[in-house]
Amino acid sequence: NKKFSPLRGAARRAPPIFRWRAPFLAFAYKYLRCAAGAGDFPAPAANVTDELIRACDVLIPNETEAMLLAEESGVAAAAEKLSLRCPHVIVTAGEHGCLLAESGRVTPFSCPKVQTVDTTAAGDTFCGALAVRLARGDALTGAIGFALRAASLAVTRRGAQCSIPTEEEVLAFGG
After folding, report:
1. Is 174 exposed, middle or buried (0-12, 13-18, 19+ CB in 10 A)?
2. Is 138 among the residues known to form the active site?
């Protein structure tokens, strides 16, 4: 369970999180190319390109997005395939937890079982919690565990921002 450096180059100071929602794709593409020292920016990206996936250090699609990006019909196969283009792929799978794929090897992570009330902020909570723990120097697997607990707590509450738990709540939940 080695330490994980979340980002390369200039972006290492504060890990950016990009959700695959338009219109932010073009911004994410430009940011990642700049952080990687790629220079000039191409026209705004209309789709998630292979170049954008390769520019990521951590890619966090949900199951549907992973299968679409990898052009695969199975989630594990999609995660495996994407991990050959991005070093760390985390496919979120709702109540089933997530899959971590690195260099073609897929590892499942389960999440705590809870009574689901509203899943609105689950993915954003997962990504935010993961970023916080990676920025603090946690190993990737530890950060995933924390993020899964945070997302599990979020779905026990109604709403979006108001459902996101504090760090203290996540730690008390079993951290």
Report:
1. exposed
2. no
Q: Express each pLDDT in 77-88 by its tens digit.
A: 999 999 999 999
Q: Specify the pTM.
A: 0.77
* C-alpha–C-alpha distance, residues 95 and 91, integer Å: 12
Tokens 């993020």 locate to 147
The one catalytic residue in 40, 50, 118, 124 is 124
Q: Which two tokens stand for residue 43?
A: 């026209």
Q: Using alpha carbons only, give the angle 13, 137, 1 rounded to the nearest 5 degrees.
A: 140
Q: What is the DSSP letter of 139?
A: B
Query: Both tokens of residue 85?
Result: 């283009």
**Distance between CA atoms of residues 148 and 154, nearest Å:** 10
Only one residue has tokens 């954008």, namely 52
